[in-house]
Amino acid sequence: MNLANKITLARIFLVPIVMIFLLFRFDIGEIHVGAAKLTAGELIATFIFILAAVTDGVDGYIARRKKMVTNLGKFLDPLADKLLVTTALISLVELQRLEAWMAIVIISREFAVTGLRMIAVTEGHVIAASPLGKLKTIIQIVAIVSLMLNNVPFSTISFPFSMIATWLAVIITVISGVDYFYKNRKIVSLTNTQ
């Protein structure tokens, strides 16, 4: 259990905390910004989500720089990412800030690519994160944060930033998923011939 893995585990432990502050109504005040309303709990949840998202880059950097890459880390890191994003998306559906079908598209893509990676491993291949996949992650985080903040501060000028960011996240999620399967189609076809 090295430092990088400990940071990844900390990200996993932050997941239920994000959900609790996002979904449970604590009587600790509200903030009104234009037409939008935010609870203090939602602000706390957003801060914790951003902190957790930042640790994703930190643990990977430490693991590579300090040569701490382990099989446990290879398993925990994508698991932590998927838990964080999935929890946030489902919570946002519950808050009626995200359409359920959008959450389903994003989550389904994550499961599909994870399945592809598992097939690749059985064939002795490792599918590294692509630049498109990394872009997808950044856009998803921006969209989730904007939804958690209920489009603040853009709500003051009636600019639908959250909606635009969410549509971009869905589109890039689908494109990156198709890209992974297209670039690794030989792995899939190899398993079909055996």
Automatic annotation (TrEMBL):
PANTHER family: CDP-DIACYLGLYCEROL--GLYCEROL-3-PHOSPHATE 3-PHOSPHATIDYLTRANSFERASE 1, CHLOROPLASTIC, CDP-DIACYLGLYCEROL--GLYCEROL-3-PHOSPHATE 3-PHOSPHATIDYLTRANSFERASE-RELATED. It holds the Pfam family CDP-OH_P_transf. Pathway: Lipid metabolism; Phospholipid metabolism; phosphatidylglycerol biosynthesis; phosphatidylglycerol from CDP-diacylglycerol: step 1/2. It comes from Thermoactinomyces intermedius. Belongs to the CDP-alcohol phosphatidyltransferase class-I family. It is found in: Cell membrane. This protein catalyzes the committed step to the synthesis of the acidic phospholipids. It is a multi-pass membrane protein. This is CDP-diacylglycerol--glycerol-3-phosphate 3-phosphatidyltransferase. Its EC number is 2.7.8.5. The gene is pgsA. It catalyses: a CDP-1,2-diacyl-sn-glycerol + sn-glycerol 3-phosphate = a 1,2-diacyl-sn-glycero-3-phospho-(1'-sn-glycero-3'-phosphate) + CMP + H(+).
